[in-house]
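Quick start: read one record
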Amino acid sequence: MKSLSVIELSNLYGMTRQAVYKQINKGNLSKNSDGKIDLSEAIRVFGEPSRHVNGSQTTETRKLSEVHLLEQQVHMLQKQLEQAHEREQFQRDELKAKNDQLHVKDEQIEAIQRLLEAPKPNITQPSEPETAQSSSTMEIKEEVIVIPPKESEVIENKRIPVPEHVEPEPQKRGFLSRFFLPNG
């Protein structure tokens, strides 16, 4: 296998000599007895040298790949933001629809309450003679329209029977007192 010096290896991979020595000191890379490094050893630690032909070229390629990665992340975050806005708008619409339904129900309840309020009859003392005008007012009847409640709204009043006389519970006794005390 081919052996390379530290300078040749640093030129091949486009890195400084200090970076190569750092890998040697860490024990990741080893030198031969002649002080050179096996190419297979360098490939194991640094990868294929074809990727690292020129330091400026690799730096530029790295920057382009980082920019591309960041652009993808920005695009993904924009999509997530749009989806969040859509969810928020949907929830607002749902809340508005529920509020409208509640408003309609409130109006229905008020209408039913108005209908349930019985009109107070106009009772006058029979001391005055009846005139044609007063008899016409008596003949007018108000029609009360009762809207039956929906089945789900019907509330039944269930009576719970309450006994008239409740006997107090006997005092609880222990195991031995059942045998030795009277009335047991």
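The chain has a mean pLDDT of 78.
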